[in-house]
C-alpha cells in the first residue's frame, strides 16, 4: 500500500471517529419534578416567577451546534419540568444580554421557527429512540407542534427542525398533527420566557410509575445565528435525532381514556353534461367522527342499515361490517393500553363497542 493511500485512510478514519463518538454518546439524565399535593399549579402567562418553578430543578447545560460545535452556549437557558394533575408543565427562560435584539416575527400556528428566536421540545414518550412529539414556540408564544417518525429518516419531503412542511405535507415531520396544549411567552427584562402546559391525554405513552422518556430542547438564538441543545446534537442532524436525546425520569403516568366526537355535514351537487337535460343530482350526508383513546383494546363493528356504497358491493340490511384498526409505527406496534381507534359514522350507521375477545369468538364460531 502506498504512503498516499495510508494517509488518505487515516484522514477518513479521523473524520469518521468523532461521528461515531457522537452516535454512541448518551444525553444527560434528568428528573421531572412532581407537583405536590395541595401546591398551586403555575400560572401559564409567559413569566417563570412562581414558587413552584423556583423550587424545581433547572437544567442549564446547553451546548452549541452552530457556530462553534461543542462549545458552551453563549447565553444562559433554564429548563424546568413539572408533572402532576394530569398535565406536563415545561418552563424555559431564555436569558439574553440584550433583549432588544430578540427576533419575533411569526404569530400563526405552525409557522417556521428557523428565522426567529425560538425553542423546540422533543418528547420521546415511548423511549424507543425513534419517534417523538414536538412542541415549540417563539417569543410571541405561537403554538408549533407535530410528530417525528423514525428519527426523521422516513421517505418523503424532508424539512429541518422548525421548518413547517405545510398542511398536507408528507415527510419525517408530520405538521398536520395539532395537539391540545397551551403555551404563553413574552419578552422580559431577562430575555424571553415561555411556559407550556401539555395535558397527558394529548400524548401516547406506556402507563406506570417512574417511567422514562427521551427529552431534548433546542434553542435558536437567531440574532447570533446560534443553535444550542440540552442534549448535544452534531452538525448534519437536528432535534429529530431522537436517539441522542436526554433521558427524563421520575414520571408517574396514569392511564388515559378519552373520547372526541366531531360532527360534520357534507353536501354536493352533480350534473351529467352528457345528457341534454338540466337535471341536477344533489347529495347530502351528516354524521360524526369518533376518536377513542382507551386503556384497553377493543373492536368496532358497524351495522349499516342500508346497502354499501357503489364500488364495495351490496349486502342485506343489518349484515355486520367488522372494522378492526390497530395503529402501528412501522415495526413498532403500540401497546394495548395506548390504542387509538378512529372511525367515521354516517347517518344510518349504528356503532357497537365490543369486548376484546369478540373477534376471536367469531373466528372460533366460524
Tell me what you see in this structure.
With 366 residues, the chain is mainly β. The chain has 2 domains: 25-253, Immunoglobulin-like (Sandwich), CATH 2.60.40.1190; 258-365, no CATH class. Helix content is 9%, strand content 39%. The chain contains 3 helices and 22 strands. The chain has helices spanning 3-24, 51-54, 358-365, and strands spanning 29-31, 33-34, 63-66, 77-84, 87-95, 118-124, 132-138, 144-148, 173-174, 182-188, 191-199, 208-221, 226-229, 246-253, 258-271, 280-293, 299-304, 320-323, 328-329, 332-333, 340-346, 349-354. The strands form 5 sheets. Strands 1, 3, 6, 7, 8, 9, 12, 13 and 14 form a 9-stranded mixed sheet that branches. A 5-stranded mixed sheet has the order 2-4-5-11-10, with no helix packed on it. A 3-stranded antiparallel sheet has the order 15-16-21, with no helix packed on it. The model is unreliable at 5-25, 155-159, 164-171, 295-338 and 356-366 (pLDDT under 50).
